[in-house]
Amino acid sequence: MAYIVASANTALFPDESVIGYPGPTPTGEESAAIETAPAYAYNYGPAASFPLVASAKSNNNGFEIFKYWGNLAPWYSVPSSQYGLPDASPLAPENCSVTQVQLLYRHGARYPTSGAPPSAFAAKLHNATEKGLTTWGELEFLNKWTYKLGAELLTPFGRSQNFELGVAFRQQYGYLLNNFTEHGQLPVFTTESQDRMVKTALNFAAGFFGVPEYIEAYNLEIVIETPGLNNTGAPYETCTNSNVDSRGYQGSAAAAAFTQNAFNSTLDRLNSQVQGIQFLPSDAVAMLQLCAYETDALGYSAFCELFTEEDFKNFECRIIT
């Protein structure tokens, strides 16, 4: 239950950890679902994106636009059948046990990078609006649209992704904690120093250990991420060829070349519904990014409604080109 008080004396609200009267609190044994469950807990379909609403087109005839946002897509499990191994399973075989797990994962959903295409598009649109921009049809929402995204930080959805991943790993591998508690030791988590990386680790830990127990349940190693320092979690500062494809193109150049003609029919349609601005291929990419970023940050984006299934597939292809 929650209610709003216009003015409250914070000193009158005691710390929840010392209020007393906690009721019965027996602790059960750690779970080991990786060895005891009959099936693995995969993360499939629209459930992977709750509580986001993509668009009326999402899940139309089985097509889920969430899965075509490249690195901006909510994480989901990829079945082994896609690699030609339909009968493979991550579960421990009978009479076998898992004694160690190595988990490497990206940060949760975030706001765009500072100065990225979404903010540049918003500036272009603002300039056109001041000169008399007019939109109609599918683009009518732009008459009242404003840019609401921050930069770099995790979104609320991103925080929930990390927390839920922590819960999932406690269910699958919680029994491995016994190796630490039996020897009076704490596990060590490692992350990079950018804010969203640190908060990703903290939210994962909160899901894995619980609140407020996670505060003292592990050690967090934060590796500095900045030019001139080696960081295996962020190697782009030291591996200078990491963004070059097999043809020798820098990733950005290859993506720009692909984008040039990937959205022609959609741009023709959108440009027929606006006066005072000309949308370019780069604007199509920015609006597709806004579809993903706004949905992750705000729960829904009208930009998603502007694009076809082919557009989303091209957007995904552009990212990995």
Series of secondary-structure elements, N-terminal to C-terminal: HHEHHEHEHHEHH
Q: Could you tell me the strand content as a percent range?
A: under 5%
Assign the structural class, choosing from mainly alpha, mainly beta, alpha/beta, alpha+beta, or little secondary structure.
mainly alpha
Q: How would you describe the shape? A: globular
Count of DSSP H/I helices: 9
* Strand arrangement across the biggest beta sheet: 1-4
**Ranges with pLDDT <50 over ≥5 residues?**
245-249
C-alpha end-to-end distance: 50 Å
Overall pLDDT level: 87
List the domain count as a whole number: 2
Rg, alpha carbons:
24 Å
Q: Tell me about the biggest sheet?
A: 2 strands, antiparallel
Tell how many strands the DSSP assignment holds. Answer: 4
Q: Level of helix content?
A: 25-40%
Describe this entry's structure for a reader:
This protein is mainly α. It folds into two domains: 38-74 and 113-148 and 243-321, no CATH class; 152-242, Rossmann fold, CATH 3.40.50.1240. Helices cover 32% and strands 4% of the residues. It has nine helices and four strands, in the order ααβααβαβααβαα. α3 crosses α5 and α6 (251-259) packs antiparallel against α9. The longest helix is centred in the middle third of the chain and has 18 residues, at 156-173.
